[in-house]
Amino acid sequence: MIPESLKNTLEARVASAITAREAAVDVMKELQAHYGWLTDEAVGEAASLLGLSPLQVEELATFYEMIYRRPVGKKVIHVCDSISCWCVDCEGIIEHLKKKLGVGLGETTADGMFTLLPCCCMGMCGDGPAMSVGDVPYGKLTPELVDEILEMERQKA
Ligand code: FES
Questions:
Q1: Neighbour count for residue 143 (Cβ, 10 Å)
Q2: Which residues hold [2Fe-2S] cluster (predicted)?
Q3: Does the Cβ of 124 fall within 6 Å of ligand 1?
Q4: Is there a single domain that holds both residue 100 and residue 138?
Q5: Which of 20, 52, 129, 155 satisfies CB 3.0 to 4.6 Å to 90 for a cystine?
Q6: CA of 6 relative to ligand 1 center, distance in Å
Q7: Given ligand 1 and candidates 85, 94, 119, which is best to mutate, with the most ligand atoms within 8 Å of its CB?
Q8: Band (20; pLDDT cuts 50, 70, 90)
């Protein structure tokens, strides 16, 4: 169950939207921030706030790759595997991330810090290989830079 203050904030967001669906991503992101991921309970709460069915919320949630319907680590790494990044060896970066973190794609590190996910083009094609950690984008990745970023993100956590 969400705190009354968060409920009020989300109700105000929905009330300011022209249609409930317009506020859906904001509502799901806020609930995700509260729970750590979009739990079944959160889907029900989003549905109630938005005046949608849980199935409609589920459809929206599974469309957006930044909405997580399974538990994730404290920080989610999205590493681009689309064509421009592929041309500059994103596969090498992905392999380095897997080795460094000791996880496969879709998995979370043993300490619960990072979840590693592949993603489609992030709009940073000229700066590939690219990834984001949480909301922070990083480009022109090399294995050495990845190591520095992971260390810095761990310290920021
Ligand atoms: S293809 Fe990777 S950011 Fe566009």
A1: 13
A2: 80, 85, 121, 125
A3: yes
A4: yes
A5: 129
A6: 35
A7: 85
A8: confident
pLDDT digits (tens, 9 = 90+) for 117-140: 999 999 999 999 999 999 999 999
120 annotated binding-site participant: no
Determine, yes or no, domain membership for 34.
yes
**Residues with Cβ within 8 Å of residue 41, at least 6 apart in sequence:** 1, 35
The mean predicted confidence, pLDDT, of the chain is: 96
26-56 burial code (b ≥16 CB/10 A, e <16): ebbebbbeeeebbbeebbebbbebbebeeeb
Residue 70 lies in a domain: no
| C-beta of 94 in contact with ligand 1 (< 6 A) | no
Number of separate domains in the chain: 2
Range of the domain at 18: 4-63
Say if residue 128 is in the same domain as residue 151: yes
Residue 35 sits in a domain whose CATH number is 1.10.10
| Pocket flag, ligand 1, residue 129 (CB < 6 Å) | no
Ligand 1 centroid–CA 124 distance in Å is: 5
Residue 59: pLDDT band (50, 70, 90) is very high
Strand, helix or coil for residue 138: strand
pLDDT digits (tens, 9 = 90+) for 30-56: 999 999 999 999 999 999 999 999 999
- Asked if residue 59 belongs to a domain, the reply is yes
Is residue 69, in this structure, part of any structural domain at all? no
Distance 46 CA to ligand 1 centre (A): 31
**Which is nearest to 39 in space by CA: 6, 10, 72, 9?**
72
